[in-house]
TrEMBL record:
It holds the Pfam family FAD_binding_3. GO terms for biological process: 3-(3-hydroxy)phenylpropionate catabolic process. Residues 61-168 form the FAD-binding domain. Residues 16-52 are annotated as: Disordered. Residues 42-52 have a biased composition (Low complexity). This is FAD-dependent oxidoreductase. It comes from the Bacteria. GO terms for molecular function: 3-(3-hydroxyphenyl)propionate hydroxylase activity; FAD binding.
Length: 296
């Protein structure tokens, strides 16, 4: 129910030293960019064992950390180009909730050649316009259907359906995998992770961290991470509204007490997003009551 924006971590690492990275040379020392939990051996032993791949060890082309929309799309596209890809995902299962619902015209055009756009549009709502309303009157209109582009609309789907369309043809993610550290070596990268209760190390040529804000610790030292906390808070819910005349219209309701956004979804549902006071009570029942009031 709370939405806070932070700079997301998205970084590719290739074999070789990363600028500013320091190896764990002193005995017992811990590099600032690596969490303490990642050390399951003394630093010298761990470093020596992972320095070069052992004979027969698997060295993948790419390991992707995070199976959100970016991670699964990248994995599918790289697999389509015959690269050996593995995806590590902390979540045990795909969440049925969603944060992102809209795919915009430039993205639909960019993904058409790979066949993804066709899958994305199956069952999607094609939002043709947006309206700003106040006191039940329309005070402004944005017409997506008048854009001189290949796909003059915004396609909306629940996020788990979007992820499934993006992931088609890619490797299934290894779920329940918590990545503890990304360790550059001269000719490869070691990814240390906790999987099914064991600490394992994967070797790869390139690592892509696509885990959003939760991946910051894999990319930046804590003292160098740039974090922005935005004080605005929002209440969000997907609700059944049934058939209505504006089923393909996105609406922003303006009121002196705040803003309520409403986006169409398939099967007679809409996504509602309401501005919430930063100082309001944070309990779930209180947030639900404020959202019901905003929808009244």
């Amino acid at each position: 129910m709370r939405r806070a924006y932070r700079r997301a971590a998205g970084t590719a690492w290739a074999g070789g030293a990363r600028r500013g990275y320091r190896e764990p040379c002193p005995r017992g020392a811990r590099p600032a960019s690596e969490p303490a939990a990642a050390h399951v051996q003394p630093p010298d032993a761990a470093s020596a064992s992972a320095r070069s791949p052992a004979p027969g060890a698997v060295v993948r082309d790419v390991i992707i950390v995070g199976a959100g929309p970016v991670g699964v799309l990248l994995a599918a596209e790289l697999s389509r180009r015959r690269l050996d890809v593995e995806v590590l995902e902390r979540r045990e299962a795909i969440g049925q909730g969603s944060r992102a619902v809209g795919v915009h015209p430039p993205v639909l055009a960019a993904l058409e050649a790979s066949g993804i756009t066709e899958r994305l549009l199956e069952g999607a709502v094609r939002v043709s316009r947006g309206e700003a309303r106040a006191a039940r009157e329309v005070i402004g209109v944005v017409r997506f259907d008048r854009l001189p582009v290949r796909f003059p609309f915004v396609a909306t789907q629940p996020q788990h359906r979007t992820e499934a369309a993006l992931a088609a043809g890619g490797p299934p993610p290894v779920r329940g995998a918590t990545v503890l550290a990304v360790l550059p070596r001269p000719d490869h990268v070691v990814v240390r992770a906790a999987i099914a209760g064991d600490i394992v190390e994967r070797r790869t040529r390139i690592v892509v961290v696509a885990a959003g804000a939760s991946g910051r610790r894999l990319v930046f030292r804590p003292e160098r991470a740039v974090v922005h906390d935005y004080h605005d808070r929002y209440l969000m819910a997907d609700a059944d509204v049934g058939e209505r005349a504006d089923a393909e219209v996105a609406v922003v309701h303006l009121h002196r007490t705040g803003v309520l956004e409403s986006f169409p979804l398939p099967e007679g549902r809409r996504r509602f997003v309401a501005w919430d006071s930063p100082g309001a009570e944070a309990s779930a029942p209180a947030r639900a009551a404020r959202l019901r009031h905003a929808l009244a």
